[in-house]
């Protein structure tokens, strides 16, 4: 079981990498994409240069006139393929976690490796549901899959911990509630944060910025729609995060004798809570610019990452179950 | 935190223009009012929230007295130049520092200043029926012309809405309906609950206390809940030594379970509890995640280990027995400690006995340095004897877990014979004919005993917060009007009062039901 889990993890990572590349391809080859826009004709010559003079089957050999609409269809297909590959990766991801849970005989978030896998799976699930309901934001997939590939990759390569049982301190039903809520809200913050980043790129592009990242904004979904999506994800996540921290406090009272003790993990949970509270307040204030709000959301996700990686690696505290030495 | 930022700041004449009020008083009042408006503005609240987040960071980087006192001591020893400066800036007690308190108290003041007028406003809104339809409904974000045959059917469609019927002189009937009052109620509940939590935390800090100690099994090692019995403790400013709950506790048993690889499965302590009057409260067990909850205090299990029992009979035949808890140094409970017999040989200063000990719960082959398993499968005690002046009377409180190295370095405490390996029940005869018997071992646990009277209040506050938060975030305040003209035609209008992308659909379905 444990070996199967490890193999499925490789399938998961590969799928996410492929999905990410497909999203990138969709962006590049789309009808309004940079390549199609800048040079439709040179593309045809490029193919011809290295290969036989004329290749009948090649889509690039088609006459220049219908080339553009055909590429648009291709981009649409590539985008759909990216979503399908993401779903395949998600299934492998479920398999990775399920087989690991079976091998360990317990809930699969007992150390940092498993926790990151759980959060990233929930993140992909949130993303697929979001995509299902708002197909127009498909470009967000590139952002989400980039974060997913990085996190799952770090989990597999750096955080990997062999299957093992839980320490007695984690033997509590609050473990399921606390980590479950925290992981769920983290995954929502992940997709919400990616949407905020996309909003910043798109709105920067709309404002006339053409720098390295902003040029990318040309083909991204409507800035306002992404911003609204981001807000809804954050508004959904924040109460769950609050509940997760509360459940942790109730558990801490039973385990350590105090509901709050400024352990480094608690400090950063508090910081994230305050930053996301600031986000919601800023969002509700008409005079605060939406770009400022989006930056706060990105900052919020940075504090979440700091809590996950920074605190587990650099600080010692009571929450030292990472399995890292 | 009011929803509109940039509260208008008045610079000119404000307040009643009274000829009798001196000019500087008016100026002071204006300044005070402007300051208050600034403080309660959303921009200030946002800045304070960010300050709070930033101010919390150093407490996760620097060791904190409230979290780990030893870590602070180590840090101070390692950074002799920097540490005093940090200490002056409350760097080791960030969360009780004046500057941290200043931020959150300002934030809470801003919060009170913001929600108080909003509470009054909302109370008024709850008493005030929805206003009459505006003259021109078509100017609203959503409106429709329709024909409505039956007024009562139209009213039925507004079930769940707060509806007011008004009749105009020309026979026109207007229905004004409003929904989503819970949004503001939830918002106010959320912000008020933060105050409840603050009060609970404050009460806990003032009237709470905690203490730690080590307990060895056995009736001779029982203790009562008094300050003298604790290794370290912290009392809230309003707590006196006499305020501690009355109970006594004896550790009657301790059970630890481990897997074959040495990783722990469970720990469970069994205790006999009596109250101050000697009344038996019976046998109670507690474990990690399952504290012993007593009236007025909770007892938490923190750690455990072994305490060898040693009996020393000096050359004159006088016998003393001691139980010495050995702290462990690794996960397999390799434990190190020291047994001291200052009264040996009649208590002569140069003939005291001390034993440096290494206890391995499981080890059956050399080298006898590290235990193989945390349970006692093949326990062995390695002792080194010292004879001379233990240095206990020097007035300096030394560690009870190791011999005074200065005494050994200066030669006042000398090594006495070779190191000896003992199994349970074995006796070691020393060069002077005295004997040391390894009688056996007992278990020890470390416990934290805590009382926090603010805990329940904080819990109530958090529950209110969790109720208010979704209401505030997902609630939607909106109004609709239906104007029924005497000729059977009607006009409908809708106004979302908060951001609500779904209102268009809701309004459309409402109009659809009115049409039928």
Descriptive account of the structure:
The complex is a heterodimer of chains A (325) and B (516). Chain A has helices at residues 2-29, 34-38, 40-50, 64-104, 112-133, 140-159, 173-206, 223-256, 264-283, 290-314. With 325 residues, chain A is an all-alpha fold. Chain B is of the alpha+beta class and 516 residues long. In chain B, the strands form four sheets. In chain B, strands 4, 6, 10, 11, 12, 18 and 19 form a seven-stranded antiparallel beta sheet that branches. In chain B, helix 2 packs antiparallel against helix 6, helix 6 packs antiparallel against helix 8 and helix 8 (181-207) runs antiparallel to helix 10 (455-474). The longest helix of chain B has 30 residues, at 98-127. Chain B starts with 22 loop residues before the first helix and ends with a helix. The model of chain B is unreliable at 1-15 (pLDDT under 50).
- The outline of chain B comes out as elongated
Largest sheet of chain B: 7 strands, antiparallel
Assembly category: heterodimer
Separate helix tally of chain A: 10
Q: Percent helix among the residues of chain A?
A: over 70%
Total number of helical segments of chain B?
11
- Catalogue the unreliable spans of chain A: 33-68
Largest sheet of chain A: none
Average pLDDT taken over every residue of chain A = 82
List the topology elements:
The complex is a heterodimer of chains A (325) and B (516).
Chain A: H1 2-29, H2 34-38, H3 40-50, H4 64-104, H5 112-133, H6 140-159, H7 173-206, H8 223-256, H9 264-283, H10 290-314
Helix pairs in contact in A: 1-4, 1-6, 4-5, 5-6, 5-7, 6-7, 7-8, 7-10, 8-9, 9-10
Chain B: H1 23-39, H2 42-56, H3 58-61, H4 69-78, H5 82-88, H6 98-127, E1 142-147, H7 151-156, E2 162-167, E3 173-179, H8 181-207, E4 209-216, E5 223-224, E6 232-235, E7 247-258, E8 264-275, E9 280-287, E10 292-294, E11 297-313, E12 319-323, E13 335-341, E14 352-360, E15 380-388, H9 405-409, E16 413-415, E17 420-422, E18 427-429, E19 435-451, H10 455-474, E20 478-484, E21 489-496, H11 503-515
Antiparallel strand pairs in B: 1-21, 2-3, 3-20, 4-6, 4-19, 5-7, 7-8, 8-9, 10-11, 11-12, 11-19, 13-14, 14-15, 15-16, 15-17, 18-19, 20-21
């Amino acid at each position: 079981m444990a070996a199967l889990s490890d193999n499925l993890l490789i399938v998961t990572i590969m799928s996410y990498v492929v999905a990410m590349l497909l999203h990138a391809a969709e962006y590049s080859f789309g009808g309004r994409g940079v390549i199609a826009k800048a040079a439709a004709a040179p593309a045809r010559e490029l193919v011809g240069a290295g290969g036989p003079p004329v290749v009948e089957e090649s889509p690039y050999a088609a006459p220049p006139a219908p080339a553009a609409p055909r590429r648009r269809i291709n981009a649409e297909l590539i985008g759909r393929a990216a979503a399908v590959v993401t779903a395949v990766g998600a299934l492998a991801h479920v398999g990775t976690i399920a087989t690991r849970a079976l091998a360990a005989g317990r809930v699969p978030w007992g150390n940092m490796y498993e926790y990151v896998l759980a959060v990233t799976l929930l993140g992909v699930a949130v993303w697929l549901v979001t995509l299902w309901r708002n197909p127009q934001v498909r470009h967000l997939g590139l952002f989400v899959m980039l974060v997913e590939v990085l996190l799952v990759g770090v989990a597999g390569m750096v955080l990997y911990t062999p299957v093992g049982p839980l320490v007695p301190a984690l033997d509590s039903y609050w473990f399921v509630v606390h980590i479950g809520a925290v992981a769920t809200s983290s995954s929502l913050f992940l997709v919400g944060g990616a949407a905020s980043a996309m909003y910043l790129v798109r709105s920067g592009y709309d404002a006339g910025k053409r720098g390295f990242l902003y040029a990318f904004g040309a083909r991204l979904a409507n800035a306002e729609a992404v911003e609204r999506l981001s807000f809804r994800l954050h508004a959904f996540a924040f109460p769950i995060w609050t509940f997760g921290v509360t459940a942790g406090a109730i558990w801490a009272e039973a385990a350590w004798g105090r509901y709050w003790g400024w352990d480094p993990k608690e400090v950063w949970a508090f910081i994230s809570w305050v930053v996301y509270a600031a986000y919601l307040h800023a969002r509700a204030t008409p005079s605060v610019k939406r770009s400022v709000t989006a930056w706060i959301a990105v900052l919020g996700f940075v504090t979440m990452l700091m809590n996950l990686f920074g605190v587990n690696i650099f600080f010692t505290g009571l929450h030292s179950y990472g399995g890292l030495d | 935190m009011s929803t509109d930022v940039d509260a208008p700041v008045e610079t000119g004449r404000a307040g009643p223009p009274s000829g009798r009020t001196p000019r500087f008083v008016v100026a002071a009042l204006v300044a005070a009012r402007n300051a208050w408006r600034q403080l309660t503005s959303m921009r200030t609240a946002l800045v304070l929230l960010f300050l709070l987040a930033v101010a919390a960071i150093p407490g996760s980087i620097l060791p904190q007295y409230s979290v780990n006192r030893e870590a602070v001591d180590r840090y101070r020893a390692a950074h002799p130049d920097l540490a005093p400066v940090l200490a002056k800036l409350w760097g080791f007690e960030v969360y009780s520092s004046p500057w941290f308190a200043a931020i959150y108290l300002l934030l809470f003041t801003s919060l009170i200043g913001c929600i108080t007028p909003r509470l009054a406003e909302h109370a008024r809104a709850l008493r005030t029926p929805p206003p009459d339809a505006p003259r021109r409904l078509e100017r609203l974000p959503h409106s429709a012309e329709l024909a409505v045959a039956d007024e009562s059917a139209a009213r039925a469609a507004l079930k769940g809405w707060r509806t007011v019927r008004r009749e105009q002189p020309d026979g026109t009937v207007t229905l004004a309906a409003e929904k989503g009052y819970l949004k503001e109620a939830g918002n106010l509940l959320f912000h008020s609950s933060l105050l409840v939590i603050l009060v609970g935390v404050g009460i806990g800090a003032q009237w709470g206390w905690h203490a730690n100690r080590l307990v060895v099994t056995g009736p001779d090692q029982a203790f009562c809940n008094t300050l003298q019995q604790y290794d370290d403790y912290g009392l809230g400013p309003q707590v006196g030594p006499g305020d501690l709950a009355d109970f006594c506790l004896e550790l009657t048993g301790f059970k630890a379970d481990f897997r074959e690889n040495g990783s722990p499965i469970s720990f469970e302590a069994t205790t006999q509890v009596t109250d101050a009057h000697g009344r038996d409260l019976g046998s109670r067990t507690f474990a990690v995640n399952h504290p012993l909850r007593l009236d007025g205090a909770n007892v938490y299990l923190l750690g455990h280990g072994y305490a060898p029992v040693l009996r020393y009979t000096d050359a004159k035949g006088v016998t003393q027995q001691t139980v010495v808890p050995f702290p462990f140094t690794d996960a397999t409970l390799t434990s190190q400690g020291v047994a001291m017999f200052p009264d040996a040989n009649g208590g002569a200063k140069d003939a005291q006995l001390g034993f440096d000990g290494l206890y391995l719960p499981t080890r059956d082959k050399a080298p006898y340095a590290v235990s193989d398993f945390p349970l006692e499968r093949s326990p062995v005690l390695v002792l080194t004897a010292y004879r001379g002046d233990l240095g206990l009377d020097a007035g300096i409180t030394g560690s009870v877990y190791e011999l005074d190295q200065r005494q050994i370095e200066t030669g006042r405490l000398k090594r006495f014979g070779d190191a000896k390996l003992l199994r349970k029940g074995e006796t070691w005869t020393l060069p002077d004919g005295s004997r040391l018997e390894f009688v056996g071992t007992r278990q020890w646990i470390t416990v934290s005993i805590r009382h926090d009277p603010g805990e329940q209040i904080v819990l109530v506050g958090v529950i209110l917060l969790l109720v208010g938060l979704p209401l505030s975030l997902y609630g939607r305040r909106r109004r609709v009007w239906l104007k029924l003209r005497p000729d059977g035609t009607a006009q409908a209008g809708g106004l979302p009062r908060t951001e609500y992308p779904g209102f268009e659909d809701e309004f459309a379905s409402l109009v659809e039901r009115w049409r039928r």
